[in-house]
Amino acid sequence: MSQLKISFAMAFSGISLMLSGCAAGPDYQRPKMESPAQFKENKGWVQAAPLAAPDQGDWWTIFGDETLNALEPRVASANQSLRASYFAYQQTLALTDLARASEYPSVSVTASSTRSSSGGTATTIGTTGTSTVAAGKTVGFTASWVPDFWGKVRRQVEADEASAEASHDNLLAAQLSLQATLAQDYFQMRQADSQIVLAQDTVAADEKYLQLTQNRYAAGVATKADVALARTQLASARVQLAAFNVQRPQLEHAIAVLVGEAPSSFSLPPAPGLPQPQAIPAGLPSQLLLRRPDLSASERQVAAANAQIGVAKSAYFPVLTLSAQRGWRSPVIHDLLTAPNVFWSVGPSLAETLFDAGARGAQVAQSQSAYQQVVAQYRQLGLQALQQVEDQLAALSALAEEAQLQQEAVAAAEESLRLATNQYKAGAVSYLNVLNAQTASYAASNGMLQIAGQRLTANVALIQALGGSWETGAQPAQASVAQRQ
Asked: How far apart are CA 338 and CA 187, in angstroms?
């Protein structure tokens, strides 16, 4: 037995050294991706003052909203979609371990007890006959190993490791997407809170205008048509308020699901007012390709597809199997483990497919085409990432200018309403003038809130397009859910 162990160990060590220098298929090289020297739309949306960098990954802290700061970490710890992505990542780790196990020998043990009969009929009372009854006890150990001469196992391990890394990056991308969605929903809810306050103020003002118009009608200085117009304006304002009261709870429910809580047990108090958008330096396009987790995941999928070409090509080469067996066989158990009952065997076997009607060639062609497919997808995703950054930079630049113009419109509309109200009280104009000024003032103020919300939504979208961080060389933070067991 010791000689058998030594022979098998020497064979294992010698072949392991031989395997270190060969592996079928091409070695991986990252596909080249062209990127411009700078973002086209970066002009006009520049950093006015140095921006304090948040903790790595905690990009939402730049808005200075304590409620948002408390909500965002709950996405990583409690969101069920993210938890599902985490266990998908764990599956890829297990597949990598499974592939790596094929690099080593397997050892098994068997034990059996048999009893058999052969020959004539067994002897019974009044009947004679002959029969042979045999019994056997066997205990044996078997070891086998398929040396990875052509790198099939190593290429499979390489592919599975790359797939696991892609799954991890997809987990980070999912976390970033969910956190960005939470921030956008939260800012939309804050916008709705502000619009509710504006609508409530409008309703209160319209109630006063209706009372004023009714008083003037009773005094004979206003018409019945003026009263009807005032009532119509008040009813319209109440309808608008009701619409915002529908939108606000829907956003609150969406936030509850994102943080892993039932909507019925989750509530956020109204918080009118919106923070100012933050100027985020976009950096260089070449840096973007290294920061975004979805791009990193796509690149790892390219690496996995490249390794699969090697797996397919290894099928052209013969398979060598080294096996050894040692055991004991005896008809009775009390002398089973004695020298006369020992049996053993050791030796290699070689297998090679001589004809497969082109199956291996088709498999190689399929793996090569799959590689070209994921390379194209990787490059397309890179172009889309550049587009998303350009889109948000352009949106933020345009919205900043629009906000400034809208602020001027709000001031003009409020002044127009003030003048129309004074003229109406003085009897110089009809209520129609006031109605038009009211409509214009409300539309301008509501438009200002909408633009403010759009700017924050675009701000968050830019951060997401940049990969969740804008520091040179920064990488996304590890998903908190990925640290749970």
From this structure: 81
Determine contact, residues 293/469, Cβ cutoff 8 Å. no
141 beta partners? 109, 326
Between 80-101 and 66-78, two packed helices, what is the crossing angle to 10 degrees? 40
Q: Rg (Cα) of the chain, in Å, rounded?
A: 38
Rounded distance, CA 246 to CA 242, Å?
A: 7
C-alpha distance from residue 385 to each of 290, 375, 380, 390, 464 (Å): 11, 15, 9, 9, 10
- CA nearest neighbour of 248 among 200, 203, 184, 193: 193
Q: 247-282: string of b/e by CB count within 10 Å (b at 16+)?
A: ebeebbebbbbbbbeeeeeeebeeeeebeebbbbeb
Nearest residue to 293 (alpha-carbon basis) of 208, 167, 447: 167
Express each pLDDT in 158-180 by its tens digit.
889 999 999 999 999 999 999 99
pLDDT in tens, 62-103: 999 999 999 999 999 999 999 999 999 999 999 888 888 888
Q: What confidence score (pLDDT) does residue 110 get?
A: 85
What is the C-alpha to C-alpha distance for residues 162 and 298, in angstroms, rounded to an integer? 10
Picking from 99-108, 356-365, 469-478, which range would have the lowest pLDDT averaged per residue? 469-478
